Amino acid sequence: MTKLIMTVNGKKVSRDVPDETLLSEFLRESLRLTGTHVGCDTTQCGACVVHVNGTAVKSCSVLAVSLNGESVTTIEGLADGGQLHPMQKAFNDNHGLQCGFCTPGMIMASVDLVAKAKAAGRKLSEDDIRHGLEGNICRCTGYHNIVKAVAQAASEM
Amino acid sequence: MYPTKYHKPAAVDAAVKALNSGDDAKFLAGGQTLLATMKQHLASPSDLVDVRGLGLSGIKKAGGVVSVGATTVHAAVASSADVHPALAKLAAGIGDPMVRNMGTIGGSIANNDPAADYPAGVLGMGATVVTNRRQIAADDYFEGLFTTALEEDEIITAVAFPQVERAGYAKFKQPASRFCLVGVFVSKSASGVRVAVTGAGSDGVFRHKGLEAALAKSWTPAAVDSVEVSEDGLLSDIHGDTAYRANLIKVLAKRAVAAS
Q: Which domain covers residue B197, as residue numbers?
């Protein structure tokens, strides 16, 4: 057991957790933040993507205790009160989902993709977006509307 | 995952001590392979010693040598202006963006997966693996499948890449895992031509002497045509048999030279 202190969605949280607890388990089971989904649990599908200090990672492949003192943002922390984040709104506008299971990870990965491109002064092409989402698998949509949504959000973020 | 005890030491000596304190302790870097292996119960270390607090992250360039700290993540190498563009391209093709944000160069070469990208880059550039005890030439470092010259409690601190005149990397991805079905790294420098092949050898990464000799004579994709690539010692699985991989070695060697 380790006493873990972390900032999650801007709020300081503290819990005693077994050392082998994955970040995804900590978020879902200890904090009941079930917006972070676990799909494959093998670092492939991307449904569990969250931000650690602003960078997208797969929360099923990170130990929670290794993030003592760090800051984590989940899908629940993206909207500003009742105001959706531009990426959330764009997924809604473009119907970038069907069943919605992959959507939290898609959105968190896309926000990092757009933020990194903006920081580097690069404009994202459709190809960049498709490659940038290689680590997120959607079994419903065929990706077209997801790519449109990310392109729209990139112009608004 | 079976229970384990987590340590995060702040100095190399403390990390070695922590490793030796457990029955079956393992070093943890980015965890993108080790944690997945633990979840599948293929590994159950008593202790995990996280090496990310040792200050081994970062890229330094001095006197033509680029030193990449052991816990530097793939995303940092991919976006670095200091490393050779072929190495940046290699790093940019590992896994996916989230894996590249966590996975480290030291973790990759310590694991020495036969289908990983970095072994090809490290062997193909003729780099030196720097540890807490010694410097190991790439030619002496990779010993076989998941096997390296590292001692049990030896820690990689950095990988030093020498200056080369030309270098290129080409990879044929296994589309589901994004590991290399085959990857070929080529380089040309004052000390000669090197061709390192990953994903194809049943003993892990290897240098191909025939391709090296041909490219030493003529650094052109066409020079690869006349080289015999034997199927002996190559991997065969449901994704590609030995003949398929032998052909890919030639195709990718050409592409790597063309990209250099």
A: 166-259
pLDDT at B105: 98
ipTM attached to this prediction? 0.96
Would residue A55 count as lying in a domain? Answer: yes
Question: Is the pTM higher than 0.90?
Answer: yes
Check residue B92 and give its pLDDT.
97
Backbone angles phi, psi at B188, to 5 degrees: -135, 125
Instruction: Tally the domains of chain A.
Output: 2
B103 and B39 in a common domain? no
Q: How far apart are CA B118 and CA B161, in angstroms?
A: 12
Query: Which residue range forms the structural domain that includes residue A25?
Result: 2-75
Any idea what the CATH number is for the domain that residue B83 is in? Answer: 3.30.465.10
**Residue A63: which of B35, B36, B97 has the nearest Cβ?**
B35
**Residue matched to tokens 């990464």:** B205
User: Under a CB-based contact definition with an 8 Å cutoff, are residues B123 and B112 in contact?
Assistant: no
* Cβ-defined contact of B98 to A2 (cutoff 8 Å): no
Find the distance separating the first CA and the last CA of chain A, reported in whole Å: 40
Cα B208 to Cα A43, A91, B89, B105: the distances in Å are 33, 49, 21, 23
Q: Are B100 and A138 in contact (CB under 8 A)?
A: no
> Residue B175 pLDDT more than 90?
no
Find residues 91-130 of chain B whose CB sits inside 8 Å of chain A: 95-99, 101-102
Measured between CA atoms, the residue of chain A closest to residue B98 is A57
Q: Which residues of A touch B9 (CB under 8 A)?
A: none
What would the DSSP string read from start to end of chain A?
A: -EEEEEEETTEEEEEEE-TT-BHHHIIIIIS--TTS--SSSSSSS-TTEEEETTEEEEGGGSBGGGGTT-EEE-GGGTSBTTB--HHHHHHHHTT--SS-SSHHHHHHHHHHHHHHHHHTT-PPPHHHHHHHTTT---SSS-SHHHHHHHHHHHHH-
Residue B236 three-state SS: coil
* Closest among B87, B67, B74, B249 to B168, alpha carbons compared: B87
> For residue B191, what is the domain's CATH number?
3.30.390.50
- Alpha-carbon dihedral of residues B111, B116, B121, B122, nearest 10 degrees? 10
Q: Are residues B130 and B212 in the same domain?
A: no
